[in-house]
Write a structure and sequence with these properties.
Layout: E1 7-11, H1 16-27, E2 31-36, E3 47-51, H2 57-70, E4 75-78, H3 93-121, E5 124-129, H4 141-161, E6 166-173, H5 180-185, H6 191-199, H7 208-219, E7 230-233
Parallel strand pairs: 1-2, 1-4, 2-3, 4-5, 5-6, 6-7
Length: 244
């Protein structure tokens, strides 16, 4: 199968890391379908988009089924995420349910919709976005737990899908400054952000394109002997101590 026949779904492909991933895959020659609450404010001849709230499990499954009925999906990149930063005493049941749906449920729905065409082609790439916070971070009880769970989920899928030529890998970003998620926590220009950058071994905050390049690597047909792996794109933060 040539790159010209690749169609990738990118959840949260409208802004930030998701937009960088979508742009990177478009540059690689893929058709890309973005799923997000808002349409991208940019366009490309091979970019399509669907507006859907991925917190809504029924709506997510319906959109995924509609796409799978129209095109053969070869790649799924589940990037959409949310933090819900709270101390342990403040965590509510709704937070648990929401992030479980967003990080697990939506990813499962997208993968299940894509599997028939992937299995028929005996080729597929699934890339899930986790986080350095999977290793632990203050005020991240539900976020860290679900992002850590993504790693276990990917390893399980990798074992199940390897016989069909489908690889499943994880990219785990560290602090990525040019995103709405980062800006919801702190300004990239703040003293706090500058201190965070200094605490990272490589001495800087990440960029969305840093993550997109890792996703492009795992998505490539040349990455056909790599599955069940997690790549931390974090400037060394996963092996050192950072303050967020």
């Amino acid at each position: 199968m040539s790159v010209a026949n690749y169609t990738a779904i990118v959840s949260g492909g409208n802004t930030g890391i998701g937009a960088a991933i979508a742009r990177g895959l478009l540059a690689d020659g893929y058709d890309v379908i973005s799923l997000s609450r808002r349409k991208p404010d940019w366009s490309h001849p091979r970019l399509a988009s669907y507006e859907v709230d991925l917190l809504d499990g029924v709506a997510t499954r319906q959109v995924a089924a509609d796409i799978a009925a129209k095109v053969a999906i070869t790649h799924v990149v589940h990037n959409a995420g949310a933090i819900r930063a709270k101390l342990l005493e403040e965590v509510e049941d709704e937070d648990v349910g929401a992030l479980a749906q967003l990080h697990f449920g939506a990813g499962i729905a997208l993968a299940q919709a894509a599997l028939p065409s992937m299995k028929q082609a005996r080729f597929g790439r699934i890339v899930l976005l986790s986080s350095r916070a999977a290793l632990g971070a203050t005020t991240r009880t539900v976020y860290s737990a679900t992002k850590a769970g993504i790693i276990g989920m990917a390893r399980t899928w990798a074992l199940e899908l390897a016989p069909f030529g489908i690889t499943v890998n994880v990219v785990a970003p560290g602090p990525i400054a040019d995103t709405e998620m980062f800006e919801s926590v702190m300004s990239p220009e703040s003293e706090r952000a500058k201190a965070l950058a200094r605490s990272i071994p490589l001495g800087r905050l990440g960029k969305s394109t840093d993550v997109a390049r890792a996703v492009s690597f795992f998505s490539s047909p040349d990455a056909d002997f790599i599955t069940g792996q997690t790549l931390y794109v974090c400037g060394g933060a996963s092996i050192g101590s950072i303050s967020i």
